[in-house]
Inverse folding.
């Protein structure tokens, strides 16, 4: 179900999104060779709790951690672990959110551990830029397909593949609400965007093929060809005056 938010509800969401964005920033600053993904997860957890909020990924659908931390060919839903040590040149994707006063924030970014290859940097840059291309299309009166078309067009023109098995989503009192927000689509098609809608736009872009698979832990999703993947996400409000990025600091 799609829920249109009032100005009061948007204000409450803005606080959840601020905490989410700060937690992501702090977690990203901790990414460096020799650090474990469990250490980064604890940093994010401690910050969110310190703000009087709750990590909204923790125990959601049974997920055991505050953040999804996915490395290199892992696309999403990586489970933090004390045994997973970040190495020089790794791409580390962190996806997390916070809930406070009954409302949620959600955001993600891919961070470099030390010096990464030019190819990895180009993938990250393209995925981040594609997110903003999609956000430009998140305007009242537009369609969901406008967003996905902008994301896919930007990435595919540069030789990358768009993950189609997972999408962005609506967000509000629930972390996952309607509508789905695919990173592909046809301009002018799909659900109409209305003021008060709040959506999480999150390109997941692969260096190689678009196909992915889930590992035996039941959570971690990786590219089938073992090539790199990057992931960026913002929570965005649709307003009469254009898109407002709630998770931008």
């Amino acid at each position: 179900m799609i829920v249109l938010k009032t100005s009061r509800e948007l204000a409450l969401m803005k606080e959840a999104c601020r905490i989410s964005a700060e937690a992501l920033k702090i977690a990203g600053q901790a990414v460096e060779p020799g650090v474990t993904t469990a250490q980064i997860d604890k940093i994010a957890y401690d910050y969110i709790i310190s703000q009087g909020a709750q990590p909204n990924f923790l125990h959601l659908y049974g997920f055991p951690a505050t953040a999804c931390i996915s490395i290199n060919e892992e696309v999403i839903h990586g489970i933090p672990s004390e045994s997973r040590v970040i190495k020089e040149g790794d791409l580390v994707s962190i996806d997390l959110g916070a809930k406070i006063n009954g409302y949620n924030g959600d955001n993600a970014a891919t961070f470099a551990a030390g010096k990464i290859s030019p190819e990895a940097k180009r993938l990250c840059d393209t995925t981040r830029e594609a997110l903003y291309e999609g956000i430009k299309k998140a305007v009242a009166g537009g369609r969901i397909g406008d967003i996905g078309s902008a994301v896919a067009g930007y990435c595919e023109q540069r030789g990358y593949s768009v993950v189609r098995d997972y999408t962005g989503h609506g967000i509000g009192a629930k972390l996952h609400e309607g509508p789905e927000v695919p990173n592909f689509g046809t301009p002018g098609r799909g659900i109409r965007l209305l003021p008060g809608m709040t959506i999480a736009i999150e390109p997941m872009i692969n260096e190689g093929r678009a196909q992915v698979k889930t590992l035996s832990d039941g959570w971690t999703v990786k590219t089938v060809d073992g090539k790199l993947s990057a992931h960026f996400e913002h929570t965005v409000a649709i307003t009469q005056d254009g898109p407002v990025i709630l998770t931008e600091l």
The chain has a mean pLDDT of 98.
